[in-house]
Write a structure and sequence with these properties.
Helix content: 25-40%
Bound molecules: flavin-adenine dinucleotide
Distance between the termini: 20 Å
Number of helices: 8
Shape: globular
Number of domains: 3
CATH class of the largest domain: Alpha Beta
Largest sheet: 5 strands, antiparallel
Order of helices and strands: HEEHEEEEEHEHEEEEHEEHEHEEEHE
Strand content: 25-35%
Number of strands: 19
CATH architecture of the largest domain: 2-Layer Sandwich
Strand order of the largest sheet: 6-7-13-11-12
């Protein structure tokens, strides 16, 4: 990185891009813990996002994209580089039975807005606190539905080639909580989903039904959702519960009493508390069941 902080700050100011120097990472993770991000930047549209990515590529500054931070935690240290936070990139465009969501659009908000217009799209996912970009990157899923089930295409920017491209279903290489976007180097600008015309009241009832199920089963405390992936043929929560780990804690991080798959921040947890708790859970589950749990949540060390 050859540019001074002053010069980098000037670049953002000239482009009227909101930027925060040495930002508290806890504000950008739903676990509400973590260290410091050198530059947190908030593009308001795809054009600004591309400007930032071009600049970073030319200057050799590392970039990481953050949606709603509902699957991300940054360790308790200074993280150098630019953290492109998409939450101001909002918007929903409806045409030909499809809805194009800007990268930072909130998934629950989009599902509810489309419902009000009589368009049904994956109500099962309406309680996932994701951005559209993060939902596609993680291929998030719930109650038997995944975002890939309603995926049409995505507009992406590739900083290395300096071009915008359209990714098809095949390009996305979707798997269980997986997509090509997780390997980095690609920024999703918008994602287009398939909608179905339906009665708004019927869709609204489905949304309520799924949020009720969620409320009954999941804790309210800050978390990253289910911390571990589902192991083949079983459930992480069931194994953790069987090992008597509900309530097990390290500092402010604890295994939820309500849902053993959730590692929660019960107040004042550091990122290290969560990392240590996750490791303890993995070890105890492995020793007693032989199953090695794989994290679904992403921890940037
Ligand atoms: C209370 C709670 C409940 C949850 N329930 C579920 C559930 O039922 N099912 C489920 O699957 N998940 C669930 N999650 C986890 C999480 O919400 C999902 O993984 C979600 O898809 C993450 O979206 P995000 O916008 O927060 O992404 P982030 O956490 O910000 O990022 C996740 C990954 O996507 C990448 N990314 C984000 N945006 C872009 C972009 N525009 N371009 C390229 N890469 C990008 C990031 O770099 C990162 O690698 C839950 C989380 C919480 C806190």
């Amino acid at each position: 990185m050859n540019r001074s902080h002053e010069e980098i700050g000037n670049f953002f100011y000239r482009g009227r891009i909101r930027a925060e120097e040495y930002a508290d990472a806890a504000r950008y993770s739903t676990f509400r813990a973590g260290g410091v991000l050198e530059w947190a930047v908030f593009p308001q549209n795809a054009g600004q996002a591309i400007e930032i990515l071009k600049f970073a590529e030319e200057e050799g500054i590392p970039v990481r994209i953050i949606g709603r931070g509902s699957n991300l935690l940054f360790s308790d240290r200074l993280h150098p580089g630019i953290f492109l936070i998409t939450r101001l990139m909002r918007g929903i465009l409806i045409r030909d039975g499809q809805a194009e969501l800007s990268a930072g659009e909130s998934l629950p908000h989009a599902i509810a807005s489309l419902a009000a217009k009589g368009l049904s799209v994956a109500e099962e996912l309406s309680g996932i606190p994701a951005s559209a970009g993060g939902a596609a990157a993680m291929n998030c899923g719930a109650y038997g539905k995944e975002i890939s089930d309603v995926f049409c295409s995505a507009s992406v920017y590739l900083p290395k080639n300096k071009n915008i491209s359209t990714y098809t279903y095949e390009d996305m290489k979707f798997g269980y909580r997986q997509s090509v976007l997780q390997s980095g180097g690609v920024c999703l600008l918008s994602v287009t989903l398939l909608t179905k015309a339906s009665d708004p009241e019927k869709i609204r009832r489905r949304i309520l039904e799924f949020s009720e199920k969620r409320r009954a089963a999941q804790p309210q405390a800050p978390s990253l959702g289910s911390f571990f992936k589902r192991p083949p043929g079983d459930y992480a929560a069931r194994l953790i519960d069987e090992c008597g780990l509900k309530g097990c804690s390290v500092g402010g991080a604890a295994v939820s009493e309500k849902h053993a798959g959730f590692l929660i921040n019960r107040g004042g947890a550091s990122a290290q508390d969560l990392i240590s708790l996750a490791e303890t859970v993995r070890e105890r589950v492995y020793r007693s069941t032989g199953v090695l749990l794989e994290p679904e949540a992403e921890i940037v060390l």
